[in-house]
What we know:
By secondary structure, chain A is α+β, with helices and mostly antiparallel strands.
Amino acid sequence: MKSLFLTGTLGVSLLVIAGCATTQSSHTSSPRPVIGGQTYYGQPRDKVLWAYRNALTAMRQGNYPQAKELLDDAILSMGGIITNDKAARQARSLFHGEAKKTFIGEPYERVMAYYYRGILYWMDGEPDNARACFRSAMFIDSDVENKAYAADYTLLEYLDGLASVKMSGDGSDALQRARKFSAASLPDYNSRANVLVFIEAGDGPMKYAAGEYRETLLFSQGKTGARSATVRVNGQTIPAPAYDDLYYQATTRGGRVMDQILANKAGFKATTDTIGDASIISGAVLAGTQQGRGSKADEVGFGLLAFGVLNKIVSSATTPTADTRYWDNLPQYLSFAALELPPGEHTLIVEFQGQRGQNLPNLTKTISVNVPTDRDAVIFISDKSIPKST
Amino acid sequence: MSCFSILQKLTVGLFVPHSKTMNVKKFFAPFLSIALAAVFVGCATQGVRNPSGVRVTQMNPDEQGFVAGTGVESQDLVAVTDKMARSVLNTPEILRAQGVPRVVLIPVQNETRFPINKDIFLTRIRTQLNSKSLGKVRFLAREHMAALERERDLKQAGAVTSNSDPNIVEFKGADFFLTGKLQGMTTRTSKGTSDYILYSFQLVDARTSDIIWEDSAEIKKQGLEDAVYR
């Protein structure tokens, strides 16, 4: 009877541990981004993550049609309201980590997907759809614990207002809100500005899991190289300071609802582990003192041992690990400059500056721009861009 | 009673058996079954409201919702454009027009937070009117003007044949402009997200700038996403 019970318990434990191993390996073997335009999604639940990464790579290579396609696909997945999703249910369950869920990213990542799509809409001469993207991005950033940090991206507000001004609307409220958020000085809107330069620099925030069971999601700052930029064209020099900092945005969101779920999982894991330890020790002591005389206490001892083992198994199978998948080629700083240039060919020089304002000549980009007569010329430039004529 | 407290009470019960004469099997069976039940009941979402989220539901615009809405979808497009097409045809200026009025489409302006294919609204209104108005209105293909002008130039140059005098201007001018605007309001609370969108369309007299027809449709949606995304 005892041996049958113990064999059964051992069998269950092996099954649970085997399932656990599969769960762990499925999200830790995240493949590296594909550079060069090829789209590789890895796991289906990582599809949006790969769309984000590859879209940004495509933008930096000047492959805007591919970036649009990837971002549209990503927005289709993350833009709606996800309910009754099997992967989400698993991510909430005790025995799966958070990374089991379909990745759509933390708010700062979703904001950036809309931000980039907005730039691409503006490039296509659709400032109203660009503004819609900036508004969606601001909406995503409104879900924060501390409302002081809700929808506090300077550029999203500023660009919302600029798009309104360009469409003969009123952008004054948006400009006022943008100035409230910005440490750097924001210029007044110029409705005649026809060259919009979107600049980004530095490395974005990285995610890591902390806590006894890696149940707490935290962020670390990326490598800080360039911070701001200067645009030179036709004898004009226009500063493009860092208006937004993604590390700041990632770290000011506050607690997530998912953090509570992970904390509960961690609590359950700790409790079952403690009970397991106590039961095993008590059972071993009880069974050991009876020296196999087959008494009731002997049987209780073995029962406690089995109960302890079961608790240890359940504890080890409980997975409170936070999801640390992240959009790993995001920038840290976002800048912008609006210029008024006559239609035709122009050469822009974008110079990057470091944290202390020093020039970083190795990052300088030279871009040829053909300013059209019927729409704005929109230029996207990163300190990691491969420059291409616009 | 929380899962943790059940387990804690279990532990106390185990270490202090009530009776040494209790049958061991009877003693352990409830503990093990309760422990297993506690494990599978899932303590992880304890204290989280609606962990699975709340399915998006469509409501009447005048209905008081527990939160407010989400984006533009195909059913909205169909409902809105069907209503607009029916409404335009009942306009006296169209019903009692001398001759067939010519209409030119001006792109819809999107002021919502949802990026959309703006042309799709006017395209569907146009196709509905063309298929159901029995020729009461005609639309001018201004988006093809460049190709049309090139063809006329070829005819004027004698490079291609022409069934009429190519030097007479036959491109028709607009009697009316049809355009529209999408405006939205968004609400977000801990109970979910709500979006209200007002779809308004106008027919403007090209000669007088009078708005001879205007109609609107409203759609409000709301939902709450799964807790793992909150």
